[in-house]
Amino acid sequence: MAAPVVSAREVFAEAVKAVLETWPVLQIAVDNGFGGVYSQQKAEWMVDAVQQYFHQNANLEQYEVEDFLADLMNNEFDTVVDDGSLSQVALQVCQLFNQCQQGKLSEVKGQISQLSQKKVSGRAKATQMQTPADQEDEDESEEEEDAVEAMECEGTTERKPSSMPPKEQDATPSPSGDMDEDGWTVVRRKK
Known about the structure:
Layout: H1 8-21, H2 24-31, H3 39-56, H4 62-77, H5 85-101, H6 105-126, H7 132-154, H8 166-170, E1 171-173, E2 187-189
Antiparallel strand pairs: 1-2
Helix pairs in contact: 1-3, 1-5, 1-6, 2-3, 3-4, 4-5
């Protein structure tokens, strides 16, 4: 049985997915829910949107792709990308698209595997175990929280709440119902 033939369009879709999955700005936006509860779905949709943008527009320039990506990030994730990575991502996607159009699918697949390895190694670094110093810091912050909680409990005593603060309890409206010129009732202190 022969292996299925992979089209340039399918390879480009994989390439866009690999590029976007290794883009730190997008991953931070997804991990922190900048796009709401559907952040992950928006990131997946973004792959299709970028791919479709390339196939619907001929001869795209890098700045056009940058603008498109910037709009997507702003509209979907309320994120303005100003770390310089936008131009790098746009350039990379443009280059991958051109390689796919030229039939250099094996080169593109090689780049996809490199990006996938980068993604896996990046996640491995992020999930490393805590160092002992990090653990000590965490323990200290828990102790501080417990101390604050204890102080809050010690300072409270049972008091019967009053409907008025103590200063205002002495003040009563005058029996004559004095009103000032704006229609407010004048409240005077007992003597």
